[in-house]
Design goal:
alpha+beta; 2 domains; 4-stranded antiparallel β-sheet; two-stranded antiparallel sheet; 9 helices; 23% helix; 18% strand; binds iron/sulfur cluster
């Protein structure tokens, strides 16, 4: 995202909208203006979507690969009051015309080239951070008795993450014998035998985004080891992550709980119950 200094009045109203603090005030000549730090910006689109800029100075320049991956993992879809962008193109509500900022986007960047085309070509998700398997295990049966599902959620608003940090965590996890979830958008660009980013995607290591989820499963007895490895790797990376562990209940108990207790892992148990709207795919 960028700000047109010719239009920006330097009012600063957009600054608090940025979740990673990428918008800063600068004096350009005698006049104050806002600028977006291109290294920090994760292309989430919040600043432009908010409509806070009355000068319509915020615009999206052409965003080629690999920078386009930032939007994919930062919720960077674009929706305007009078027009909607999707990977398929742009549509406007009947009888409405585009706002000036929307026209600027159309004219200056060629919206179909925005990001999603590149992302689809590279087969990196579709603007999603993860899959739904973990929340719908009663239907998918992905995690069986004796297994645990593990999700490692890197980054958060205010911090974000670099893909090189994601790789560091994935490499550590694979050494514990985890199996990556094949449908997850992160798995698409990882070598699942090493956890390293595939050579085809090497250029994303220096890119950053708001958050991404590494999803995998492992034998239940591996949880203690995975936890220790993740504690070590947490010291090596420049962001935060949250660890989710999924375990099938049996007869009202959580089989994993004694192992977690032994490993010194304090848990806060969250549950999601599907009410039978989905037909189980498993016996
Ligand atoms: S809201 Fe618009 S005019 Fe005000 S500082 Fe931000 S970009 Fe500039
Ligand atoms: S696109 Fe998102 S990260 Fe970039 S400047 Fe706007 S609000 Fe900040």
């Amino acid at each position: 995202m960028k700000i047109d200094s010719e239009l920006c009045s330097g009012c600063g109203r957009c600054i608090p909208y940025c979740p990673v603090g990428a918008i800063k005030k600068r004096d350009v000549g005698a006049f104050p203006t806002a600028v977006i730090d291109q290294g920090e910006c994760v292309e989430c689109g919040v600043c432009i979507r908010s409509g806070v800029c009355k000068s319509e100075a915020i615009y999206l320049p052409e965003t080629p690969w690999p920078r386009s991956i930032r939007a994919a993992f930062s919720g960077g879809g674009f929706s305007f009051g009078r027009g909607h962008f999707s990977g398929e193109g742009i549509s406007f509500e009947r009888g409405r015309s585009p706002t000036r900022s929307f026209s600027r986007i159309l004219n200056k960047i060629g919206l179909p080239r925005l990001t999603m085309t590149d992302i689809v070509e590279k087969r990196v998700g579709g603007g999603s951070r993860g899959t739904s398997e973990m929340k719908t295990n009663d239907v998918t049966g992905r995690f069986r008795d004796g297994e645990v599902g593990i999700a490692c959620e890197l980054g958060r608003p205010g911090i974000g993450f670099y893909f090189r940090d994601l790789e560091t965590v994935a490499v550590a996890m694979v050494k514990c014998g985890v199996q990556f979830e094949p449908q997850n958008p992160v798995t698409v660009f990882l070598d699942t035998s090493t956890g390293r980013i595939k050579d085809d995607f090497a250029e994303i290591r220096g890119e950053r985004a708001l958050s991404a989820i590494i999803e995998c499963k492992a034998p239940m007895e591996k949880v203690g080891e995975i936890y220790r490895v993740l504690q070590e790797v947490a010291e090596e990376i420049d962001t935060v992550f949250t660890l989710d562990i999924i375990n099938k209940c049996q007869d009202g108990t959580i089989p994993l709980k004694p192992l977690l207790d032994d490993a010194g892992i304090r848990v806060r148990i969250n549950g999601k119950t599907n009410v039978g709207l989905g037909r189980p795919l498993i016996p």
